[in-house]
Amino acid sequence: MDGRHSDILVVGGGPAGLHAAFYAGWRGLQVQVLEARPVLGGQLQALYPDKVVYDIPGLPAVVASEVVSNLVAQLSGLPVSVQVNATARHLSAHNGGWRIATDDATFTARAVILAPGLGALTARAARVAGAEVHPGVRTEVPEAAALSGKHVLVVGGVPQAVQSALELVDAGAHVTLTHRRAGFRGHPAQLARLDQLRMEGRLEIIAPALMDRLTSEDAVLLEHGTERRVQADTVLLLNGYLPDLSPVQTWPLNWNGDYVPDGTGGQTVLPGVFVAGDAAYSGGSFKLISVGLAQAAIAANHAVHHVNPELKVRPGHSSEKWLAPRPRGPGEDGV
Ligand SMILES: Cc1cc2nc3c(=O)[nH]c(=O)nc-3n(C[C@H](O)[C@H](O)[C@H](O)COP(=O)(O)OP(=O)(O)OC[C@H]3O[C@@H](n4cnc5c(N)ncnc54)[C@H](O)[C@@H]3O)c2cc1C
User: Fold this and answer.
1) Please, are residues 42 and 121 in contact by the beta-carbon 8 Å criterion?
2) Ligand 1 center to 15 CA (angstroms)
3) 88 lines ligand 1 (CB under 6 A)
4) What is the pTM for the complete model shown?
């Protein structure tokens, strides 16, 4: 049984996928984005949300996570739906268009824009003694509100560990944050807040400390060689991510290693299937945000024309067209 239908399916919620969704949505088409991770943003959000990026046109220095927030904000008001925790696995022809199956749903569309980047960013496996006996070990961050009132041990020095610890405190969890090194990575504002919460006694930090083992009810840390037992209903092991392209590499796209050959407009060998971003061969392995955004704009507009030939490939200029919510120009004080 086929699930949701849209005009265009975008595989991957990184910068290329989000910008492709923007363009197709802005042209008035229904867009469905499928993202394997629980959150959007691709490599920027998973691998370096705290780092400053200097080579995005018009933004001299911007934190990667803010690039993501802005790409997402740009979708506001457009006919774009997002499905997270959805890894696109199978592609098949359907009624002149395409059907994509994830683990628990199918999606159909007239065109597909593939923007998988380096691959589905999956959490690194947890290798902690006793992980199999503790009932609450997680490697992906759950909805913070679900852990309200619980004792949560967050393990890791990556930005996700800091962000999760803050969100969990806000949600009313009793949080302990630990890492084998003394320092944590994160947005400066988040690091400052972490310090403030620690000083207020609203969050405990045990670092540097080694995670020695988990038992069925708590965690045992080694701090300066001394054992410390930490109460933990949930243990979040946040170790970063590994990319996995294999779910889409079975698709018959004449893959050239990690790249999909593309012609004019990002068109692949399958009619109505386009590619953009790090995975597009035409990018010449540049793997840059600015390159991916340009490819996304081109692929999305070709996909729009493929779906509805009455719509021209070239989109015209956004500055000349109405786009809700319309920002006011100089001298304009209302609609
Ligand atoms: C540490 C680091 C620093 C960087 N710094 C810069 C910089 O300063 N400037 C710059 O221009 N570039 C930089 N880059 C490169 C830049 O991040 C990439 O070029 C960019 O993220 C590519 O965007 P994308 O949308 O093609 O892919 P990605 O960002 O990789 O996003 C792809 C998304 O698709 C999802 N996905 C994959 N497969 C599936 C599937 N089967 N189903 C559903 N979802 C799927 C993934 O989970 C991911 O979220 C940096 C990269 C790294 C690792």
Assistant:
1) yes
2) 7
3) yes
4) 0.87
What single DSSP character describes residue 310? T
Q: Specify the length of the chain in residues.
A: 335
> What structural domains and CATH numbers belong to the chain?
5-122+242-320 (3.50.50.60), 125-239 (3.50.50.60)
Residue-wise pLDDT for 105-162, tens only, equals 999 999 999 999 999 998 887 789 999 999 999 988 778 889 999 999 999 998 889 9
- Buried b vs exposed e over 9-47: b needs ≥16 C-beta within 10 Å? bbbbbbbbbbbbbbbbbbbebbbbbbbbbebbbbbbbbb
Residues annotated within a binding site for FAD: 35, 43, 48, 88, 121, 278, 319
**E strands, the chain, where?**
4-11, 31-34, 52-53, 62-63, 80-83, 90-94, 97-101, 106-114, 120-123, 137-138, 151-155, 174-178, 204-206, 210-214, 218-223, 226-231, 234-237, 241-244, 273-275
Residues 100 and 181: beta-carbon distance below 8 Å: no
Residues 18, 15: Cα–Cα separation, whole Å: 5
Is the shortest distance between the CB of 103 and ligand 1 below 6 Å? Answer: no
Return the best residue to mutate from 289, 290, 291 for the ligand 1 pocket (most ligand atoms within 8 A of CB).
289
Q: Give the residue among 202, 204, 235, 205 at the shortest CA–CA distance from 217.
A: 235
320 phi and psi angles, rounded to 5 deg: -100, -5
Minimal-distance CA residue to ligand 1 atom 2: 48
- Nearest-atom number in ligand 1 for the CA of 122 is 47
Instruction: Express each pLDDT in 267-301 by its tens digit.
Output: 999 999 999 999 999 989 899 999 999 999 999 99
CA of 117 to the centre of ligand 1 (A): 5
Instruction: Specify the residue for token string 């197709």.
Output: 24
**Among protein residues, the one whose CA lies closest to atom 30 of ligand 1:** 117
- Determine the distance separating the centroid of ligand 1 and the alpha carbon of 13, expressed in angstroms: 9
Query: Ligand 1 within 6 A of 288 CB?
Result: yes
Q: Which atom of ligand 1 is nearest to the CA of 16?
A: 25
